[in-house]
Design goal:
Blueprint (H helix, E strand, L loop, with lengths): L4 H9 L7 H5 L16 H6 L7 H4 L12 H13 L5 E5 L6 H12 L20 H5 L6 E5 L6 H10 L10 E6 L6 H12 L5 E7 L7 H4 L3 E4 L5 H15 L5 H11 L3 H15 L7 H8 L4 H12 L3 H13 L4 H20 L11 H11 L4 H20 L3 H16 L4 H44 L1 H9 L1 H21 L1
Parallel strand pairs: 1-4, 1-5, 2-3, 3-4
């Protein structure tokens, strides 16, 4: 049922998604004169009896321009909507927290957009449309959202198939948003095929999934696919800095970078961690990077470098004490392994490139130590240590006692780090074999020469004992001796050939 303009205007004042002061302005647009209760600071919100909304929901993008790192997708959609080449089904893929569900709702809002000035599908929202608020709050009658993780069977899909033939209640299109679509059963996917290929003109499908490889190709071929990118460090820092400023919190850039790295490209994870950091920093004058590191359970890079140094030099007792100290300070064994792998990767990267960028936010002192340590080891050994780290990560995670597994990994790495690589062992064996062959060749040659000398002595003895031959040799000494020698040599060569 359509709402009156007075009702819509009244709801906009308290809207948590459309007229939220922070939501519309956190990327730099002009501020609204209206104040949303949920955009107030937590203390004021609590005094007014309001409910606090976490940052990941409070700063959910409300326009396509707010989607960070998705410029290519936005440009494609902009061109498609302006030219009328709008697909009937969309597949949104990507890791957690990059905006798949948000994008699906924005698409639904675009397809059903209608305002006093615009009455056609568009991705440019000059003002809040008639259906925008209900769609973004996931309560519009013509926009159905289904979680395929909990509704996986053909019976659930049959409900959709039975309803698509009915016209819309108030909007332009009837839109079905299916989240985690890869979890549908085989029969459910098969039930969708025919309808997905030729849906009614008033029906649109929007799918979202984190594991697109599990979606049948017959489904993928019927959809326009968009792969949503993870946020890089620059975009993540931009997002966190702006939200921190809007929240009135004081968190330095180093701490925000550390939070951004821990988020691993996920905007939702980054905002959730920032929410926790803001709470921790309240009334804490000593809040700094170390506080964030403790909050995240990360190891100190300086101590990880110490651990690597002890392992590489074979100082096992010191390495074990270092592991014990870090665990007592709250570092998880899996995090220590991860941090050690990052140090090894950074050393390898510096070894093979001229890039001196501090990718791990190590700081000048730690960066100088890494550059010094990388000169003491070659790439082959670093590669071998990296392979051991990959295996150790699984061992530590699956072990019944992760600390013991981590200690065994350190012992193994310390003993193996100074051993020759397989290539070096093979080369050493080849050199040894070649040396033996050369020795045997020289020995054989020497035996042949000694045999010739013995033979010549026998010949001369025979000549000296035969008077007739001795008489001939007196006239032709050199010629006859050489003839004898040549005859013997020819005979030996003939025998060897045979």
């Amino acid at each position: 049922m359509n709402q009156s303009n007075e009702d819509i205007n009244e709801e906009k004042v308290f809207s948590s998604t459309v007229e939220d002061d922070n939501q519309d302005t956190f990327l730099g647009s002009e501020k609204s004169s209206k104040k949303n209760p949920e955009s107030l600071p937590p203390d004021e919100l609590k005094a007014k009896g309001g409910q606090y909304k976490v940052l990941a929901r409070k700063y959910r993008p409300q326009k396509f321009e707010d989607l960070l790192g998705q410029e290519t997708m936005v440009q494609i959609l902009r061109n498609a909507f302006s030219s009328g080449r709008i697909a009937h089904a969309f597949m949104l893929t990507g890791v957690r927290g990059v905006g798949k569900t948000t994008t699906a709702r924005l698409l639904a809002r675009s397809l059903n957009y209608k305002s006093s000035k615009v009455d056609e599908p568009t991705i440019d929202f000059s003002e809040s449309g008639d259906h925008c608020q209900e769609i973004m709050e996931s309560r519009h009658i013509d926009v159905m959202e289904m979680d395929a993780a909990s509704r996986t069977g053909i019976a659930d899909i049959r409900e959709i198939l039975d309803s698509i033939n009915y016209s819309t209640a108030s909007a332009r299109y009837k839109i079905y948003i299916i989240d985690e679509v890869h979890m549908l059963s085989k029969s459910a996917f098969n039930g969708l095929l025919k309808t997905l290929e030729e849906p009614p003109e008033h029906v649109k499908f929007i799918f979202a999934t984190t594991e697109v490889h599990k979606v049948p190709l017959t489904i993928l071929s019927r959809c326009q696919r968009f792969d949503l990118r993870q946020l890089n460090e620059e975009l993540m820092l931009k997002l966190l800095s702006k939200v921190t400023e809007d929240e009135g919190a004081k968190i330095n850039e180093g701490s925000l970078k550390l939070i951004g790295r821990a988020a691993d490209g996920s905007a939702r994870d980054g905002l959730s961690l920032l929410d926790q950091a803001i709470t921790l920093s309240a009334g804490n004058e000593d809040f700094d990077v170390n506080s964030v590191r403790d909050m995240l359970g990360l190891s100190d890079h300086a101590r990880i470098i110490d651990l690597y140094n002890f392992i590489s030099t074979g100082e096992i007792d010191k390495a074990l004490w270092e592991i014990k100290d870090q665990i007592e300070l709250g570092a998880e064994p899996s995090i220590i392994i991860l941090s050690l792998g990052e140090i090894i990767h950074e050393m390898t990267r510096l070894k093979v490139t001229n890039d001196d960028n501090d990718n791990l936010s190590l700081g000048p002192e730690n960066m100088a130590r890494i550059k010094e340590l990388k000169e003491k080891i070659d790439v082959k050994r670093l590669t071998r240590l990296w392979q051991m780290i990959l295996k150790a990560d699984q061992e530590v995670k699956s072990s019944f006692k992760p600390t013991s597994a981590l200690e065994m990994v350190a012992i193994r790495m310390a003993y193996i780090s100074n051993l020759p690589t397989p290539d070096e062992i093979i080369k050493s064996l080849d050199d040894e074999i070649s040396e033996k062959k050369n020795f045997n060749t020289k020995t054989s040659q020497k035996s042949i020469e000694e045999g010739k000398d013995i033979r010549d002595d026998k010949i001369m003895s025979k000549i000296n004992s035969d008077p007739s031959v001795k008489k001939i040799m007196e006239h032709f000494p050199e010629t006859e001796v050489k003839s004898f020698n040549n005859m013997e040599d020819s005979k030996n060569e003939s025998n060897e050939t045979e």
